[in-house]
Amino acid sequence: MSEAAEKVVTSFEQPAYSAAELGALAHLYRGEVYRSTIWRTRLDATTNWAVASLGIALSVSFASKDASPLPLLLVGLLAIVFLSFEARRYRYFNVWRARARWMETNFYATMLRGEGQSFPKHWNEVLANDYCRPSHHISLITALGRRLRRNYAWILAIQAASYFGKIAIHPTPLEGLDQLYQRATVGPVPGQVVVLAGLIFNLSWILFAVFSLRADLRRHKGRKSSDAMG
After folding, report:
1. How far is Cα 206 from Cα 148, in angstroms, rounded to an integer?
2. Cα(first)–Cα(last) distance of the chain, in Å?
3. What is residue 118's predicted lDDT score, i.e. its pLDDT?
4. Tens of pLDDT along 86-132?
5. Domain range spanning residue 42?
6. What is the CB-side half-sphere exposure of residue 123 using CA atoms within 13 A?
7. Which candidate, 55, 65, 142, places its Cα nearest to that of 98?
């Protein structure tokens, strides 16, 4: 569907819409804005869950010098669960947002410029096809990358810094690498394994954020933001 949208390059004179049709388009636009607003609220809710969970973990781990840093490890995994929820919601939000934006740039903007009925070529066909054959405009990987870069990278960075700060200062300041491994030990799991797993975990998400950004840039290369949905 996005490829079809990219074919919008010229303008043409199309039959004038009747008053009833203009009213229907106005109501359609209001409906798409409403749906995008509802899904935007759901996105904010998921982020709030992740932030609240991190806040609880920080409160528990830093409540005393003898408190375990384990909640800070678990909240990192929980943040990834919330990220997966939010990426799925973002894919739905992107559908409604793209439709509303499509009408704004190709229909309303044309009228506001006083260009009469000289709408961009095939704009109505692209929108009609999207209603007849609805589908997500972006992949789950793209959605994960976008939400990670915009929100969850900061949450994971705070989580990692807090965990290191906890084992570095409690119960006393670190005096060596062996002490770091000792404090990082979780039950039967050696501290070296926990530290290595943490490094791999965070490095993996950093690389994912970078490569997903590069893929997003390649996907939109040479294309204006209003040229296609998604």
Report:
1. 9
2. 9
3. 72
4. 999 999 999 999 999 999 998 898 888 887 667 777 888 999 999 99
5. 2-219
6. 26
7. 142
How deeply is 10 buried, as exposed, middle or buried, from its count of CB atoms within 10 A (0-12, 13-18, 19+)?
A: exposed
Cis, bond preceding 171 (omega within 30 deg of 0): yes
Token output for 29:
């636009």
Prediction pTM value = 0.85
User: Is 230 within a domain?
Assistant: no
Quote the number of domains for the chain: 1
SS3 letters across the chain = CHHHHCCCCCEEECCCCCHHHHHHHHHHHHHHHHHHHHHHHHHHHHHHHHHHHHHHHHHHHCCCCCCCCHHHHHHHHHHHHHHHHHHHHHHHHHHHHHHHHHHHHHHHHHHHCCCCCEEECCHHHHHHHHHHCCCCCCCHHHHHHHHHHHHHHHHHHHHHHHHHHHHHHCCCCCCCHHHHHHHHCECCECHHHHHHHHHHHHHHHHHHHHHHHHHHHHHCCCCCCCCCCC
**Residue 229 covered by a domain:** no
Block residue for tokens 């943040």? 79
Q: How far apart are CA 195 and CA 70, in angstroms?
A: 12
Of the candidates 41, 38, 40, 51, the residue with the CA atom closest to the CA atom of residue 82: 51
Q: Which two tokens stand for residue 209?
A: 């954020």
